[in-house]
């Protein structure tokens, strides 16, 4: 059935537009299909749900137990480093000696923060019930996405899209990492707001604008991930040309209004990031944000379209490889998607276009962070819809014996590739990622408790960490059941292989190979931005210790001298290895000792 006008093309529900699709058969299908998808997700994500505390989860537990060095309100748990707290955190060793003097990491996520607070108050400190809470939010996100798919696609591709979205690897880390639950919260309410806008476009009932306004506000209170959904809201307003301009602007303002209020409150209260190479605030450092955006965008696009895990592409991936992936991807996707979209009727083509465009715009807000599959959750809504349309056309033509042309053959091969990545590789990657998070979090917890058992009094211990790959920054909060950190926790190096040279009872030099540095500079360094580097002159002083960079290499400081106020042998020493964190001893005066990763 072909619409009679552009207005009809924009307002008719496309689930009724194609006579080639079978009608929605029986009532049981309306609940059986999503139930089966959710059950499949439960199986695939079960390892992630069984993970222990992970990364920032230990900080939240410590804050809520009252053992963190500084206090937080229930609405402010995502303030990790405030401007007036750096000295306290540096003295306790929660910040390493190389931390940027302007370091700030504060996220405005009051709703997500309140839910974390309620979790610990009502469910205690056992991670499993808290992970089950996150699983409920994943289910809500899937159902909200399914509603969007049903609204703008026909029945069969809507089902494909729901499966692809539900089982994507981007959900594994937010399920294993309680602190990342805000991704589900913001996305759920954002998609509900988008659904209300679609209803308003179709029906013109102003109460839908009220619903959109409320859901948009809740999405923003969940966190900045809400701005990724804003990409779809913007592309819908532009694409729905058959809808009256007043309706489109009203729907758009139902998100834009709360978004402006959110940004104003965020700025007034001093939220945001500064001095970190891991986070790049687009408002505080716009040029740095723009400089890194292309590399981050290509990485995230590859993560989303190819269902990759977090290790396939990283900051060490050569630029030429990313360029090759981008050029090849644009060519293949452009040709394949164009052919599929051209075969759609007008209403479905309009919806397909704004969903695809929205999937690209959804990445813009998360370009402020080092790339990770967890960041493409919102983008996966449009990716899943596009892949579903490709699969539907290719499989439907094959099933009905349609005439084969070169274009159809290309779409068929294109569909085989996308089907493999999203229906085979994606779910398997999700399960493997979840299992990895489960195992690594369990090893981390066991290693922390084993290290604490070797300390006479963990609460009063002064610990020196010879080297870490990164997890030791969270280790002090995992040592005890009440998440209380030791009196002092000093991390000397975040690197690979390091050689320790004992220059005296209280003096130690650490040396790394020419192609390494004692800590990463620039991208990936949570505690120092690329704009500030430690030179050869001067000394960094922290309570109880003085640090001097003796030699720099191409990657950063590679020979550093540490002098402490007490003998090195009087302090507890630890080092992170590949699979555990263990007690070590420094070399004797006048000797050296290697510490491999």
Automatic annotation (TrEMBL):
The chain crosses the membrane at residues 31-49, 155-176, 220-239, 251-269, 319-340, 352-369, 375-395, 407-425. The keyword Ubl conjugation does not apply. The keyword Transmembrane helix applies. Keywords: Membrane, Transmembrane, Transmembrane helix. It comes from Chondromyces crocatus. Residues 586-597 have a biased composition (Pro residues). This is Glycosyltransferase RgtA/B/C/D-like domain-containing protein. Coiled coil: none annotated. Residues 1-22, 577-597 are annotated as: Disordered.
């Amino acid at each position: 059935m072909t619409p009679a006008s552009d207005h009809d093309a924009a307002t008719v529900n496309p689930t009724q537009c194609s006579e080639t699709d079978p009608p929605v058969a029986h009532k049981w299908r309306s609940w059986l299909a999503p139930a089966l998808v959710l059950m499949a997700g439960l199986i695939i994500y079960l390892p992630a749900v069984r993970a222990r505390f992970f990364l920032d989860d230990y900080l939240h537990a410590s804050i809520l137990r009252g053992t963190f060095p500084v206090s937080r309100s229930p609405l402010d748990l995502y303030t990790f480093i405030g401007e007036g707290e750096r000295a306290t955190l540096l003295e306790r060793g929660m910040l390493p000696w190389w931390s940027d003097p302007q370091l700030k990491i504060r996220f405005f996520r009051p709703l997500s923060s309140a839910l974390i607070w309620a979790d610990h108050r009502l469910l205690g400190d056992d991670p499993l019930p808290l992970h089950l809470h996150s699983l409920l939010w994943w289910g809500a996100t899937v159902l909200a996405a399914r509603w969007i798919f049903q609204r703008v696609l026909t029945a069969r591709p809507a089902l494909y899209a729901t499966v692809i979205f539900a089982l994507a690897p981007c959900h594994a880390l937010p399920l294993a990492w309680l602190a990342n639950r805000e991704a589900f919260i913001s996305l759920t309410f954002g998609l509900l707001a988008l659904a209300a806008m679609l209803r308003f476009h179709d029906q013109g009932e102003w109460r839908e604008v009220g619903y959109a306004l409320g859901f948009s506000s809740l999405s923003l209170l969940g966190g900045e991930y809400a701005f990724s959904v804003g990409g779809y809201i913007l592309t819908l307003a532009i694409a729905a040309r058959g809808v009256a301009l007043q309706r489109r602007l009203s729907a758009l303002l139902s998100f834009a209004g709360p978004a402006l209020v959110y940004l104003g409150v965020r700025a007034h209260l001093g939220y945001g990031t500064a001095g970190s190479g891991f986070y790049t605030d687009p408002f505080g450092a716009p040029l740095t944000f723009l400089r890194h955006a292309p590399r981050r965008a290509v990485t995230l696009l590859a993560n989303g379209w190819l269902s990759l895990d977090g290790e396939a592409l990283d900051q060490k991936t050569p630029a030429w490889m990313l360029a090759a992936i981008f050029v090849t991807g644009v060519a293949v996707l452009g040709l394949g998607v164009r052919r599929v979209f051209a075969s759609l009727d007008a209403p479905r083509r309009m919806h397909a276009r704004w969903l695809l465009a929205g999937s690209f715009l959804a990445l813009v807000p998360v370009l402020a962070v080092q790339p990770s599959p967890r960041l493409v959750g919102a983008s996966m809504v449009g990716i899943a819809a596009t892949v579903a349309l490709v699969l539907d056309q290719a499989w439907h033509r094959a099933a009905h014996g349609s005439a084969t042309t070169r274009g159809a053959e290309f779409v068929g091969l294109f569909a085989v590739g996308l089907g493999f990545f999203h229906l085979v590789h994606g779910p398997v990657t999700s399960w493997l990622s979840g299992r990895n998070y489960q195992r690594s979090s369990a090893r981390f917890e066991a290693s922390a408790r084993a290290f604490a058992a070797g300390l006479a009094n963990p609460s009063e211990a002064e610990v020196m960490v010879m080297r870490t790959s990164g997890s030791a920054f969270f280790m002090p909060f995992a040592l005890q059941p009440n998440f209380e950190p030791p009196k002092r926790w000093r991390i000397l190096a975040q690197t690979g292989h390091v050689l320790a040279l004992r220059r005296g009872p209280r003096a130690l030099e650490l040396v790394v190979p020419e192609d390494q540095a004692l800590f990463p500079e620039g991208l990936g360094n949570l505690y120092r931005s690329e704009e500030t580097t430690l030179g050869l002159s001067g000394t960094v002083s922290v309570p109880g210790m003085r640090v001097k960079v003796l030699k720099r290499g191409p990657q950063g400081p590679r020979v550093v001298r540490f002098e402490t106020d007490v003998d090195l042998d009087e302090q507890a020493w630890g080092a992170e290895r590949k699979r555990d964190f263990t007690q070590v001893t420094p070399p004797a005066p006048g000797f050296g000792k290697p510490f491999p990763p």
